[in-house]
Specification:
The protein has 230 residues and is α/β, with parallel strands linked by helices. Helix content is 39%, strand content 22%. The chain has seven helices and ten strands. The strands form three sheets. The chain has a four-stranded mixed sheet, with helices on one face. A hairpin with a 2-residue loop joins strand 4 and strand 5. The radius of gyration is 19 Å and the shape is globular. The two termini are 24 Å apart.
């Protein structure tokens, strides 16, 4: 594994949260002005596993994609990508300030200013509606009950379920195929009956999702697209 260089910290006046980014082999940490030193150190410690994985992946990839998410989208204008099982062509438009869609051509038109942030926010908003709706459909189909569902922009887990039966889903699920999305949702629904990963839990998963092993393997191989921002 290549050595990870020192993290370069940058205080950004408009930042609302701590954010790590790897650009051209350097690691940058965006810091909100109000962040406390102990919170910064805790964030760095909790991000070590993510950092080791993504730094290794990026330095082994061609240098053309070791750019910032915005640069990548600008360079790859007319990039095709699938979001919630619909194919879109991503194009940049310099004269708009928010995302627009041309349904007739399946175009997702992004503003030239911070296109990656706009695209990620759009996926989050769409995921909050469609992932919650799909979870409800699967719960009814397989006779599960849960307290509530939340969708957020997470960096690590695909989903979680607490003791109260509240399920949290990662908005990034929108970038997966439908079978894998359904596996994650069913996995969390099974946790409403078994709050562990016991043999009984996995038997329940296998009952409602017989292809679960294939989906688990796909999740292990998944890599976030360059434009996806944290």
């Amino acid at each position: 594994m290549p050595a990870i260089p020192p993290i370069i910290r940058r205080v950004h006046p408009r930042a609302k949260r701590l954010k790590l980014r790897i650009v051209q082999g350097q690691v940058f940490l965006t810091v909100p002005p109000s962040a406390k030193a102990r919170d910064i150190e805790q964030f760095i410690q909790c991000s070590q596993a993510w950092l080791r994985q993504h730094f290794t992946d990026l330095v082994e990839q061609p240098s053309e994609i070791q750019s910032t998410p915005d640069d990548f989208l600008m360079q790859k204008n007319s990039l095709s990508t699938k979001i919630l099982n619909k194919e879109y062509i991503l194009v940049i438009h310099k004269e708009i300030e928010k995302i627009s869609i041309d349904q007739s051509k399946n175009l997702l038109i992004l503003p030239a200013k911070q296109p990656a942030a706009h695209l990620t926010a759009w996926v989050l908003a769409k995921s909050k509606v469609e992932l919650a709706q799909r979870l409800e459909e699967l719960a009814l189909q397989h006779n599960f009950s849960y307290h509530r569902c939340g969708v957020r922009h997470a960096k690590t887990r695909w989903g979680s379920c607490n003791q109260q039966g509240s399920i949290s889903l990662n908005a990034g699920l929108a970038l997966l195929d439908q079978a894998t999305i359904d596996y994650v949702l069913l996995h969390e629904l099974c946790h409403t009956r078994h709050m562990n990963h016991s043999a009984q839990f996995w038997a329940e998963v296998a009952r409602v999702c017989p292809t679960n092993q294939a989906q688990r393997n796909l999740l292990k191989k998944f890599r976030w697209p360059v434009w996806w921002t944290y």
